[in-house]
Amino acid sequence: EPLIGVLAMQGAVREHVAMLEAAGARAVPVRRAGELSEVDGLVLPGGESTTMSRLLESFELLEPLKARVAEGMPAFGSCAGMILLARQTLDGRPDQQQIGGLDVVVRRNAFGRQVDSFEADLDFAGVDGEVRAVFIRAPWVEKAGDGVDVLATVSGVPGAEEDTARIVAVRQGAVLATAFHPELTPDVRVHRLFVDLVRKAA
Ligand code: GLN
């Protein structure tokens, strides 16, 4: 079984650990570079991306994390985690750091402040049937490079009316990201996709 870390700076760390275990992996929280070096893949939870990037710097994890992702370590970011894995953030704070790994430009708090959170049932490439997606001050992917697979879009919500599908899940190689929070539903299928990516990379 692969050993998957959950970055434990902020966010739903326990929920991600439980989902990964339910999906057949071993899972551990990661706070230090030594712990990062032992895992076969890493989940970056939601939270607040600027705060998370500051915490990554003070825990001296930012550079090691950039290096491991650049070397091909599988990673899965949800919400703020997606923002950190993007190559560029629009509407970010000036000191926002990017880990990179995904050739995408994301827009932070993209659905607007008046819609703090919402849920939607989405088609998700690689998963049969719909996925219940919980969005909390979520970003969307504004631009995706040629090497990026779009896995899910949302429309029919503020900021993404019926005729504007917004990209909310992507994969590039072994890097997966969702603008929403699969760890806040009972459905483990998105985590299972990630565990499969980690197994294949091992
Ligand atoms: N709005 C947050 C940010 O900009 C992300 C929200 C989340 O992770 N639920 O980082």
Automatic annotation (TrEMBL):
The active site is at residues 79, 181, 183. Keywords: Glutamine amidotransferase, Hydrolase, Lyase, Pyridoxal phosphate. Belongs to the glutaminase PdxT/SNO family. PROSITE patterns: GATASE_TYPE_1, PDXT_SNO_1, PDXT_SNO_2. One of its GO terms (molecular function) is glutaminase activity. SUPFAM superfamilies: Class I glutamine amidotransferase-like. The gene is pdxT. It comes from Amycolatopsis australiensis. In the presence of PdxS, forms a dodecamer of heterodimers. Only shows activity in the heterodimer. Its EC number is 4.3.3.6, 3.5.1.2. It catalyses: aldehydo-D-ribose 5-phosphate + D-glyceraldehyde 3-phosphate + L-glutamine = pyridoxal 5'-phosphate + L-glutamate + phosphate + 3 H2O + H(+); L-glutamine + H2O = L-glutamate + NH4(+). InterPro entries: Class_I_gatase-like, PdxT/SNO, PdxT/SNO_CS. Pathway: Cofactor biosynthesis; pyridoxal 5'-phosphate biosynthesis. Catalyzes the hydrolysis of glutamine to glutamate and ammonia as part of the biosynthesis of pyridoxal 5'-phosphate. The resulting ammonia molecule is channeled to the active site of PdxS. It comes from the Bacteria. GO terms for biological process: L-glutamine catabolic process; pyridoxal phosphate biosynthetic process; pyridoxine metabolic process. This is Pyridoxal 5'-phosphate synthase subunit PdxT. CDD domains: GATase1_PB. L-glutamine binds at residues 47-49, 108, 136-137. One of its GO terms (cellular component) is glutaminase complex.
